[in-house]
Every structure is written in C-alpha cells, then in structure tokens.
Amino acid sequence: MNPNTEGVVMNIEVIKEFLMQNWLVIVVALIILFFVLNVVKTVLKWAIAIIIIAALLIYSGISIDQIKQTVTDVQSSTMDTLKKEATSMMLKEASKAKYVKGQDGAFTITSPNVEIKGITQSDKVDVTFRGISLGEWKLDNETIRTFVEQAQENKTAPAS
C-alpha cells in the first residue's frame, strides 16, 4: 500500500465503521432535517438545519477546525456567486438605474436589485445586492464604472 494513500484509506474505513454503527441516528437526523426544511419556511429552518448537521458532524468526530474551514469555504463561495450575480445584474439594469447625489458629495445609485453608495471623489463604493451587503468594491471594475456612468446619464436624460 502506498504510504501517501494510507491515511485516505483509513479515513474511509473509519467513516464506513461510523455509518454502520450509527445508521439509525443518521436516518433520524435526516428525517428531522427533511421535515424542518419542508415545513418551516423561515430563516429559523436554516438555523435548525445547521444545528442538526453540526450535531451530526460533531458526533461523528469531525473537528471544530474542519467545520470552521468548511463554513469559511461555503461563505466565500456564496459571496463570490453573489458578486458575480450582482455584476451581471448591473449590466442588465443599468438603463433602469437612478442616480441621486447628496449635498455632501455622497451619491446613491439604485436599480431594482442593486444599490451602490459612494462619495464622488472616492475610488470605492458600497454595493448591496437584493438587500445583502457585498462590501466595498473598487471603482476600477469596468462593470461598476459603466453602471455609474449609465446611471448618471439616466439622471440627466430628458424625460420621454
């Protein structure tokens, strides 16, 4: 057996043994999880689902560090997906964007799904997509710059 793959084979054997010894607990947890996801229709369902999954993982012997790493990976992946969706939506909604300039040099651009807030001389803006803050983005992004310019043109365009 290759010394590099020995840990992987051992891990699979440990997982198989755990599944065989605890299949009833896993089945009950999956039934409860299925019930919660189908019956409860709020954010509470995701909290309960996470608790059930975390309890199963902790019960199975997975370390807290591994769970934290997985949560971080999922969070990062979700934010990347949201940023891609927001960028795509900016391109689609640029013609609907409304530019509002405040007296202090701050501006807000809103479209049906995207909101951008910034200061005129700053190179950064705060982006919100469908009510979820995506943090501060630099204006060196071509899509954001185009979105801002189109919104400014919409503001100054004559009414039709």
Describe the protein's architecture and organization.
- The chain has 160 residues and is an alpha+beta fold.
- It is 60% helix and 18% strand.
- It has helices spanning 6-21, 23-39, 43-60, 64-93, 142-156, and strands spanning 98-101, 106-110, 114-119, 124-129, 132-138.
- A five-stranded antiparallel beta sheet has the order 1-2-3-4-5, covered by helices on one side.
- A hairpin with a 4-residue loop joins strand 1 (98-101) and strand 2 (106-110).
- It is elongated, with a radius of gyration of 24 Å.
- The N and C termini lie far apart (76 Å).
- The relative contact order is 0.08.
- Residues 1-8 have low confidence and may be disordered.
- It comes from Paenibacillus xylanexedens.
- Keywords: Membrane, Transmembrane, Transmembrane helix.
- The chain crosses the membrane at residues 20-39, 46-64.
- This is Integrase/recombinase.
Short description:
This protein has helices at residues 6-21, 23-39, 43-60, 64-93, 142-156, and strands spanning 98-101, 106-110, 114-119, 124-129, 132-138. It has 160 residues and is α+β, with helices and mostly antiparallel strands.
- What is the chain-wise order of helices and strands? HHHHEEEEEH
Label the overall shape: elongated
Radius of gyration: 24 Å
Ranges where pLDDT stays below 50 over 5 or more residues in a row are 1-8
DSSP strand count: 5
Question: Oligomeric status of the shown chains?
Answer: single chain
Strand order of the largest sheet: 1-2-3-4-5
**Broad structural category:** alpha+beta
Instruction: Quote the distance from N terminus to C terminus.
Output: 76 Å
Strand content: 15-25%
Sketch the major β-sheet: 5 strands, antiparallel
Mean pLDDT: 77
Helical fraction:
55-70%
Note the total helix count.
5
